Amino acid sequence: MELPSKLLENAVNEIAQLPGIGKRTALRLALHLLRQPVEQTNQLTSALDKMRNEVKYCQSCYNISDTSICLICANPKRDTATVCVVEDVRDVMAIEATGFFKGVYHVLGGKINPIEGIGPSQLNIKPLIEKVRLGGVNEIIFALSSTMEGDTTNFYIYKQLKEFGITTSTIARGIGIGDELEYTDEVTLGRSLMHRIPFEQSIKQV
Amino acid sequence: MELPSKLLENAVNEIAQLPGIGKRTALRLALHLLRQPVEQTNQLTSALDKMRNEVKYCQSCYNISDTSICLICANPKRDTATVCVVEDVRDVMAIEATGFFKGVYHVLGGKINPIEGIGPSQLNIKPLIEKVRLGGVNEIIFALSSTMEGDTTNFYIYKQLKEFGITTSTIARGIGIGDELEYTDEVTLGRSLMHRIPFEQSIKQV
Predict the structure, then answer these.
(1) Distance of CA B98 to the CA centre of its chain
(2) Is residue A139 part of a domain?
């Protein structure tokens, strides 16, 4: 694909660095911006620059926040003794949307992934251990996605927390509410059988 | 979707203005930029700003170009008497990739689309008529996509060119080379029957 302009080519190459966006889509987006008023590009680029340069992270849970302590951590009604470990802000938003969780979060910022060169030191694992060491935490709930990387990260943290003798748990894996058994993959179905719960308990949960 | 930071929210909203990118994808892209070194965002935004503010268009064919006359129009080997009318730079690139066309282009910058508020005056139609009026053009080839908007634009230009008595043509519509008849839509199949060509001619073309 030979573009007739270096300026356009640079823009396309930069856009195509974003995950899931190929050269073709990048060109479509660049041409779109060229057709729109110049203000749209200015607003886009200044919003991105501002976000990247000025974004703050909560000093307690490491979630993205405009304040040094995020609204969840600053809320006196939240139970700071129960800490839910998640990958990023999207997971916090998903759990908050359920309205079920009254504890606080700890955002790792990713999962251990040797292939992509992400080791424990690049994640917010140390502050979590430190938080537990300082006391006041009763339970750590692991809520990472159940992939190889998620399981590795869970286990790495679990090993370091063992000495403190606090409760650790992972969110339940099983068949989604309303899902059909026959369309569920074998691993999920197998696990949901292995981790079956007393019937009385399953009624109480509702 | 309630984001915990105004900075992030602004960035997501701006990214989501791009065509084909929803809020969810925009958030994924914003979080990706936050995880990458700050230089990546700087390079992206400066490439976009530079493109939008400094891009030039060829004074002859209105294609995107870093020079005031693009490389195609400036090439003395190209036949300036044959002008191929296209929508944007992607069409120029697609036709150039075939290596078949030795004429020059005229880039309209869009198609007449009343629903999106794009009228003839927003497109580079006037300079095309002017080019023909000044003389030296023998044939205009319409190569817009065969949609309602493309056909409208073709017809609008065709009517204005009529008085000059030059040859006008449209690129052939038909069944793609290697395509199966049974999977071709009826309109294409119907048109390819209507516009059938003498067999001897079809052999010569190869």
Answers:
(1) 16
(2) yes
